[in-house]
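Notebook p. 47: complex prediction with fe (ii) ion.
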Amino acid sequence: MVDSLKKPQFEEVRPGVKAPAEETILTPRFYTTDFDEMAKMDISVNEDELRAILEEFRIDYNRHHFVRDEQFQKSWDSISGETRKVFIEFLERSCTAEFSGFLLYKELGRRLKDKNPVLAEIFTLMSRDEARHAGFLNKALSDFNLSLDLGFLTKSRKYTFFKPKFIFYATYLSEKIGYWRYITIFRHLEQHPENEIYPIFSFFENWCQDENRHGDFFDAIMKSQPQFLNDWKARLWSRFFLLSVFATMYLNDVQRSSFYASLGLDAREYDKHVIKKTNETAGRVFPVVLDVEHPGFYQSLETCVTNNEKLTEIANSNAPAAIKLLRKLPFYVSNGVELLKMYLIKPIRVDNLAGTVR
Ligand SMILES: [Fe+2]
Ligand SMILES: [Fe+2]
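Predicted complex, structure tokens below:
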């Protein structure tokens, strides 16, 4: 008999369909952009590289990769209690993030079709990859008797509008950080197979190559638009996007350290590694990267972690809304101050290396 006490209860919109996690500043975002500006972009400066990338996408290396084999054909009731809860949350977050990529790329493919066919085909092929990734994760959720209603998510989520330049910064970083997250888990489990509690992680090695290629595409498209990279505004925005992506991941993951612990990973060490690697990678295209070795960097992030714990505590208390807000205020202010301190840490200029192999 199934021990229902060990199964965490999730809110369901219909039987077996999980209510989407509440949207917060830390949940995966859905994007939209100025499609006309994107369509008018002149990519001729870097067209050869973009065409080569298109050829790679056409080859479709992972065509036969995402097949659920017999490893999945068993009951997963052995994953129970807190581990089951954080595991399901991990699958949901990942599925939502992949699906958000799918929606944006699909729409770009559709809207650029007649005006910028090379870019349009690239976006369509990347949306193919993201659909596979999201679908595979949603199938994994079904092993835990849940799924996400992706159609509902499409209609109900708020979309953040970014100009193409910012879409490129944001998606480039999310692809590259995705690559480093997946490959780091994969390499760790390769060394510690006893911690592989569920077979999805063995798919990460080929999977993350999709993300890496997607990131390389955004690298190439940004290089075709040097005006996005070579002025003081680009330097300020690069810092801003690097910091937001790193801080969001760190705060999310430390909050969910029990998930990483279930894989035998220390969330903080894992994140520090992923941040270091993503930051290094970003130096191939961004004009500046962050000084993540600066002692103040993680000190400030840790203050934000503590602030967020306090914020959650207040949110879960029974106090009236106005009192809650008053009590939260100092922690919001402190988060703002710490983020600003991190932003002001002297970045590392790398644009003097532009055009050379880095
Ligand atoms: Fe993906
Ligand atoms: Fe991707």
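Notes: The first strand starts at residue 12 and ends at 14. The radius of gyration is 21 Å.
Next step: compare against the earlier run before touching the bench.
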